[in-house]
Structure formats: C-alpha cells, structure tokens
Amino acid sequence: MIDLSFLKDSKDLSLYIHIPYCTKKCDYCDFYSIACTEPNEQLDRFFINLINEIQYITKLYRKPFITVYIGGGNPGLLTPSQLDHLTSAIFFHGRPQECSIEMNPESITAERLRILKNRVSRLSIGVQSLKEENLKMLGRNSSREATLNGLHILDSFRDSFDLNIDLINNVPGQLPSDTLEDIDLIEQLLSPDHLSVYDLIVEEGTPLYSSILKDQSFEIDSNGNLDIETADISNFLKKYGYSKYEVSSYAKIGKQCVHNKHYWEMRPYIGIGPSAASTLFHPTGVIRMKCKNNVQSYSENRETFTNTLYTVEEVSANELLEEIFIMGIRTVKGVDLSYIERLFSCNMVSLIPDTLKRYKKQTDLEVVDDRFICATDTGMLKLNTILIDMFIELESIELSFLGGT
Amino acid sequence: MSKDISKIRNFCIIAHIDHGKSTLADRFIERAKIVEARKIQTQMLDSMDIERERGITIKSQAVTIPYTGLDGQVFELNLVDTPGHVDFSYEVSRAISSCEGALLLIDASQGVEAQTLANMYMALEFNLEVIPVINKIDLPSADIEMVKRQIDHDLGLDPDIAALVSAKTGVGVDDLLEMITEYIPHPKGKRENPLQALIFDSHYDAYRGVVIHIRVFEGTLRKGDEILLLHSNATYIVEEIGFFQMGLVQTPDLSAGDVGYIIAGIKVISDIRVGDTVTETKNPCKAPLSGFKDVKPVVYSSIYPIDSNDYEELQTAIDKLRLNDASLVYEKDSSAALGFGFRCGFLGLLHLEVVQERIEREFGLSIIFTSPSVQYNLLLKTGEKIEIDNPLEFPDPMKIEESEEPYIQAQLITPTDYMGNIISLCIEKRGVQVAMNYIDERRVELIYEMPLAEVLFDFYDRLKSVSRGYASFDYDLLGHRKTDLVRLDIMVNSSIVDALSQLVFRDNAVYRARQICKKLRGEIPKQQFKIAIQGSIGNTIISRETISAYRKDVTAKCYGGDISRKRKLLEKQKEGKKRMKMVGNVEVPQSAFLAVLKGEDED
Fold first, then answer.
1. Tell me, what's the pLDDT at B60?
2. pLDDT, tens digit, for every residue of A22-35?
3. What is the separation, in whole angstroms, between the first and last Cα of chain B?
4. What rounded mean pLDDT belongs to chain B?
5. Contacts of residue A325 in chain B, CB cutoff 8 Å?
C-alpha cells in the first residue's frame, strides 16, 4: 500500500473524484471512460471501492477539503442514493469552499437535483453544442431536444446552484456563428455563472481523429488543433458580463471555479478513481500519483491505494517549476512568482531573461506588479511556443525544493 | 616449412548480382571443413551485417581453403569473393588482380547478364583463366542448353568446359574444386626473390589496429621483417602475419603465391593505400607492382552529422572506413544549415548508400547526405576551365561560357516484354539509343547514351519497377558532353538553404524545384508567421509553396489529470525544437532536410 500518512500534516488539499462511466463514449473523447447503461452492477461494485478510498483519505486528512470536483465520464449516471452516499463520505469532516459535479444534460432529473441541491454548490453541464450537425460530428449521445429537456428541468433548480455550461468550439464543418448562437440561447434559458468554451482537441487514437484523417479536408496540428476560422468568443461574452480568466474559461463576477484555479496555481490535490491523478506535497518534495485506467481491477480491489492500482513518481524541482508555468500561464492573472520563490527560493525573472525579453518585445508576455508573469491576448494564442522557449532556457538551471507549500 | 607453389591456386568468383556467388563460396568453405558445422551460417564471407541483410557482397573477402584432390595431392585454394554490383567494379578489379583464375558464375535460368559481361572482360584484361560455371541447375526454370549457347555466342568461351552446379544443394561442387586445381594455373614467382606484395585490401580491427590484406607475388615475408610501403614510403616492423580462414590464422611466413595478412602496429592510417606495393627495407624490389585500375569517383555528396557535436566522431569514422574502402575520397566541407561535414566522392549510388549504412551501424552515428551530384566541367568566359561537383562552388552564370556533364553508355538487358517501358524511361532520362540487339528470342540488349546525372536520380528504382526487376543494367563512362547547367536554390522566407542547392539540367529544374518545395511544405511546422518556400534559378522564382501562420499554439484544456502528459508532450516538442536549424527566421526541423535529401516520392 502506498504510504500517504504525510497527508495528516498537509493542508489546502483539494479532492477530485473520477466516475469513469458514460452512456456512450463520444468520438472525440480522450478521457478514461467506459460505456454503461443504468442501473449497472459493475458501477455499483466500483462505487463500493470508491467510497472505501474516500473514507481512507478523510481519516488521514481529518479536515474539510478546500474544494471538491466530481467529474467523469458522467457522474450523472450515479443513482440518487449513490450521490447521497458519495457526498456524505466526502463531507465527513466538513464542507469544502466549493463542490462541483459534472453531468450530461440527458442525465438531469429532478430526483437527482433534489439530492444534490443542498450538497453540491456548482453544477457543470456538458452541453457541448445545441446544433444537431455538430453533436453528430462529435459523436455525442445526445440531441438538441434531449439537451434542451435537461436544461428545462434544471431551470426550476437554477437558484440552488452556481452553473457552468461546457461548449465545444472549432468543430469540423461548423460555422463561426454556431457557438455564438448557442451562447445566446443558453443565456436566455439559464443565464449561467460560468462558461467553458473549448476549442476541440482532436486527440490521436480517437474515432474522430481517424475520420478526419480519412476525410482530409482538415489539417490537424501537433497539438490536435484544427485550422478553422473561429469567432471572437471572449469579446462576445463581455456583453453578458463574463470575463475570461483562463484559456477557455469565462466567469461572471465572483463566479470563477475555485477548484480549477487550485489546479492552475499548482496547489495540492488528490484524485480518486480510475485514471485520476494527484499532486501531493510531502515534507521533502512532490509526488504525482496516478490510478490505472482500469475500472475492472479498480472494482475488484478490496484494499485502498495499492501499488498494483496506483503508480507514484517523484516530480523533480525542475519538473514542478515547468508544471507551475504550464498551468499558471493559462490564467489571465498569470504565474505567481512569489509562490515559486517560496518553493525554490529563486528569482524567476532572472532565470529566463531571454524568453521574457523576446516575448515582452512582441507584447506576448507581461510582468505585472513584479509578481506575476502573464500572457497577453496575443500571447494566449501561442502559450506552447512560449513555454518551449522558456523550458529550453531553464534547462541549464538546477533547482531544489525548500520544502513546504 | 617450405610450401610448394605449384599446389597453390588463387581464384575469384565473378558474377552478376544474385547469381549465387556467396552461396557457392559457402559450399567451398563447408567442403574444406575449416568451419565447424554448428558455426556455419549463410554468406560466411560476408562479414558485414549489411551484406547479409541485403544479400549482397560489398567488400572483397579472402579465405584460404585446404583441399585434397582426387589423386591425394593437397592444395591450398585462396578464394577471393567479389561484389557483383556495378558500383563495386573497383573492388572486383582488386580481387581479380590478386588471382590467376576466375569462376564466371551464370544463373541457369537468368543466363548472361550485363554484369556478367563486364566482369568477364575485366578478368580477361588481367589474363585470368576463366571457368564458366552454370549455377542453380536444380531450379525447374533452369535452361542449361540456352546458357551454354550464350557462353559460346555472347562470351566466346568454350561451353564444353562449363561446370554444372547447384551451390544451394551442393551438386557438382566437388567436381568444380577438382577443375580449379586442373584448369587454373599456379602462381609464378620465387620465394628467394626480393619481396613484392600487393595490398589489395585492409581493415581496422578494434583490438589489433590496421590489418593489411596482401597477395605475395615474389619473395618471402617473415615476422620481425622491416617492410617498406613503396607509395607512401613508410616503414614498419611486421608483428604478425597469417592466412585468412574464418578469422586470422597466424603463420611463420608468407611467400610468393600466398594470400594473407600483415599486422604491423600501423598508427598512421593514411600510410596504407590499397594498390600499394609492400617490399622489404633491406632488400627492396626494383619496381612497384601494377595492375590496379585507377578509379575516379563519379558521384559526389556531402555528409554531415545530424548532431553537429559529432563532427570529430564522423572524421574518425570516415578515416577508418577509408582503410578498407580505398574508393572513398573525401575532404572537409561546411554548410550554414548543417554545420561541418565532408564532401565525399563515391563510385555510385549504391556505394553511397553502403557508406551511409556503415557509418551509422559500425560507428553509431546519425548522418545526413546532401543531394548526389556528378562532376561538371565548366568553361569560363575568361577561358579558364574548372571542374565542379559542389553546387556551392557554382560560379555566376554570367561568367560561364559553356558547361559539360558526364555521359555514360548504358547497357540494359531485358526480357522483350519490358522493352517498351525501358525505352520510355531512357528517353525521359535524356537517353539516345545507340543499338538494340536480340540476344535470343526472349531477351534484348539495349545500348543507350545518357547523362550520368539522370541515373543518379531515381533511375535504378524506376528501372526495377518498370521491368519488375528483370532488367539488368551496367554502364561505362563516356566522358563529358555539352549541357545546359543551372544551379537550383531553395529558399525559405528568402534565405537560401545551402544544403538543398543542386546542379541540374535546366529543363529538369522546374519539376525538381516543385517536388522539393512540396516536400518541405509538408515537413516544416506552422510558425508564428507565414512562410514562403521557393525554388529559384538566380533571381527567377520557378516554384512556390506557402505555409500559413498558425492561428493558435495552445492546448484548449488542461486540468489536474493532464499535467504530466502535457509536460512530457512539451518536453518532446522541446527536444524537436532544439534539433531545428534556423534558416533566416524560420525553424526548419532536421527531418525536413532528411525528407528532401532522401527524396522519396509519394506520388
């Protein structure tokens, strides 16, 4: 069993729960999920071990988690009683600042929402698109009608939750205005607090990747992006009161996702469930723990956090610094240099003078208040280019941990 | 120990590629029982991996086979294996010059091929006794009578003495060994005379240093003797001498008629020149031996290490390679895009490929070759004549009065079915037909004159494909003829990529430029700005491709579960970026040069 005893002394821990089930796997989906119908016995067996692991962690940590995020897959496939059971286990030592749950629109029922309304603070609904052709292209197991039905049920519970809607932009064959029209309609129906508008990533190995390669009307670059004419989402959303605060995230005032910000700031989190990853700070360093992508062995497992199910690797100081940049530079606020200084006792600005000089000159990067390195609007479009140059410059530098967060 | 020179036979096997030389050599070695049965593997003389893999013999190899004749006499048969490919005719000449006889191997179903004739003429030039051997008689398609007619008619040899063998099954091999002792004359020379030995090869052994392969023509050589290399005027003390069996076998002396090796603690690799004569310092021979055909490279290309830090290693590798590949010539070269490297001359395209593979395999280096070129003669307006093979040395076209390129006489033998295809290919390659002769009712010999440069550019592959591999090809150089030569440059955002410049016939320039630009377009990743890829002759743009700027270079989604993967992806892209070469403001990946220079055609 993996030694997680150091968790009893840690603080600021967030929790991620992965429910690896979905009614159908979408053609673009690269997450670990398997198709299942409801009710499902395998899901029930999986759920028992999931609860065991949550209880194990709450016993060690003995504090409320900072934030919680229940994602998938589609956690909307859990039965109302499972949702009850799950949240009770998570909240054993008290409520987090924020607790989000993902759900596909077709899984929204009044019964589920009644259970959730006094437990989770935030719903994240995977709408993706309201256009039939785009849903079809994405291989979604949903229709415009089913989606609107779900949203209609949600409407009567609207005041009980902060609401996020996920949309996918850059779908092959879509018009630039498609996403804008979807936003208009969603705004009229529900006026969400938060929108995540992702450019489609065409991941190698997905059915969508194969069909696009076959079709040859679109080029996929090394990041999985398609070269499609798109609309200026950020500007469009301003009129509804949303501000962009991350590459794909938009929120109304005071409604940014605390849990996701926790990731982007590289704060500690523990992930439970098949394929979930953790970043944990122990007294002398940082580990990345990852659960295997195998729901079968997860469900059969009678012990918690075994070495057969989880892999653990040390994250070196240099790797952690890279990760802090990979995550932090995504946010409009930028990378907090004071955090880096506390971790490694180094002055970041002096470590990457060439990269900063080049990209400041191109107005892609800024240093704000001597504390944050952040990307401008143009910089946001080339984060990978910037990161790679930064990493090349960082190569000759050897960092070490000071210890503690 | 005194050996009887009349019991020595030095012979080689010459043949067209694939007619079974190496297999026959294996049978001889097996009969001689110098290798334990369990150590027998196919192509035993082909010690280079690349030879076994491709089923070709590149280097000449030697082996001494003890043989007891039917009458009980014990013979020492020195077999020198030779390559069959046209590029390596120089190696063949080295092997031939150390022998008194040759087995001319002919495939019983294929018959006489272009290379068979070329090798036979070479053997006759050196006054070798030639025994025709019809091989693969076990095949159902064998037509022994047809081959006998060809031996008589095409080769002018006596078909009645032709040996019938199957190297594969071993049938006829014993009779052939007997024929060797009977027909091939023993070497001349006296062990009392001053030492006169010919260096026909050499190789580098990681533990023992330079090993020189020699054929002793006159005199006797012993351990401890001081030897003089006539050409390089270097002296060395002999540390060890011996024979080639499956490995090196020490012997106290080598004397007239023997084929063997010398180890003499040689440190200066350039002292050893294949073709040089070895003699003794205290009693030198009067004159060097002759008999080597002087070869000139016909194909030139520059070799660069992919990692420019490997330049020193590349230098060492090429020096060592040169030791047993005397045909390789080279000098230092440098390119803005690829760094420091070597300009090399090769005997042909296959030779170039073999050198590439040997550097990569035997020395573990990753290298890149620039487009192969021939040597052009230029007459300048000033009246000065210059020879160039490197595009970077091409003068201002305004200063050129006239240019010439090398031509070859190509000999193609093909089943009549593919004649039409081959004629079309030759015409496309600027060939002019000189003759067409029917060898028999099924096969025809075509003689074309064509520019050598056309043969360098995808000719072999095309020939193979249009004739389904049935056509055979050989050529002789004819000398230089007038041409219209231009330098084709490739530019990336207006900066010339020097490594991709080529000298081409003017009418081929547009096609070639289009091909390269298209290839580069697929290989250079999108960048922050638009990239123009252009082919040009002087200031005239003859082709253009454009790579649009990327709209975005950012990952849309990244949460707690994706960090490791994302970091590893960026690390990988970082390694790729570090290998990029800057051409002006554009980052060009190493793979783009490789793709263009390898020149594979997708369409």
1. 46
2. 988 889 888 888 88
3. 66
4. 85
5. none
d(C-alpha A139, C-alpha A124), whole Å: 20
Q: What is the ipTM of this complex?
A: 0.94
Least confident of A148-162, A238-252, B256-270, B365-379: B256-270
Check whether A73 has a pLDDT greater than 50: yes
Q: Look at A382 and B528 and tell me if their CB atoms are within 8 Å.
A: yes
Neighbours of B17 (CB within 10 A): 17
Confidence of residue A278 (pLDDT cuts 50, 70, 90): very high
**Given an 8 Å threshold on Cβ–Cβ distance, is A388 in contact with B556?**
no
| Paired strand residues for B438 | B444
Please state the rounded mean pLDDT for residues A75-82: 94
CB count, 10 Å around CB of B361?
A: 13
Residue pair B107/B136 in contact (Cβ under 8 Å)? The answer is yes
- Which residues of A fall within a CB distance of 8 Å from B550? 221, 227, 382
pLDDT at res. A77: 93
pLDDT band at B88 (very low <50, low <70, confident <90, very high): low
Integer Cα distance of B541 and B276 in angstroms: 51
* This prediction's pTM: 0.66
The H-or-E segment that residue B183 falls in is: helix B173-183
Nearest to B563 by CA among A267, A178, A6, A52: A267
Q: In sequence order, which residues have a C-beta less than 8 Å from that of residue B405 and are 6 or more positions away? A: B374, B376, B377, B451, B452, B453, B480, B481, B483, B485, B505
Compute the average pLDDT of residues B75-104: 76
Q: Is the CB of B237 inside 8 Å of chain A's CB atoms?
A: no
> Pick the residue with more confidence: B349 or B593?
B593
Query: What SS3 state is found at B516?
Result: helix
Q: Give the whole-angstrom CA distance, residue B48 versus residue B90.
A: 18
* Alpha helices in B265-395, H assignment, sequence order: 311-323, 349-363
Does B556 contact A247 at a Cβ distance shorter than 8 Å? yes
Exposure letters B409-439 (e unless 16+ CB within 10 A, then b): ebbbbbeeebbebbbebbeebbbeeeeeeeb
The beta-carbon neighbor of B570 closest among A198, A269, A387 is A387
* Residue keyed to tokens 């490789």: B594
- Residues, chain A: 405
Query: In angstroms, rounded to a whole number, what is the distance separating the alpha carbons of residues B179 and B131?
Result: 9
Give the angle subtended at the CA of A278 by the CAs of A275 and A281, to the nearest 5°: 165
The two tokens of residue B490 are 């490739």
Cα end-to-end distance, chain A, whole Å = 25
Q: Please report which confidence band the pLDDT of residue B58 belongs to, taking 50, 70 and 90 as the band edges.
A: very low
B195-214 burial, b at 16+ Cβ within 10 Å, e below that, comes to bbbbbbbbbbeeeeebbbbb
Tokens encoding B73: 């006499």
List Cβ neighbours of B375 (8 Å cut-off, separation of 6 or more). Answer: B298, B300, B387, B388, B389, B406
DSSP run (H or E) holding A176: helix A176-190
Distance from CA of residue B44 to its chain's centroid? 20
- Give how far B601 is from chain A: nearest CA, Å: 19
Question: Which residues of chain B are within 8 Å of residue A328 when distances are taken between CB atoms?
Answer: none
Question: Per this entry, what is the length of chain B?
Answer: 603
- In sequence order, the 6+-apart residues with CB closer than 8 A to the CB of B270 are B232, B319
Chain B residue numbers touching A391 (CB-CB < 8 A): 570-571, 574
What lies within 8 Å, CB to CB, of A380 at 6+ separation is A247, B554
Residue A360's pLDDT band (boundaries 50, 70, 90)? Answer: very high
Does A318 contact chain B (CB < 8 Å)?
no
The pairing of beta strand B485-492 with beta strand B495-496: antiparallel
B347 compared with A117, residue with greater pLDDT: A117
Output the CA–CA distances (angstroms, integers) from residue A268 to A5, A72, B360, in the order listed: 15, 20, 47
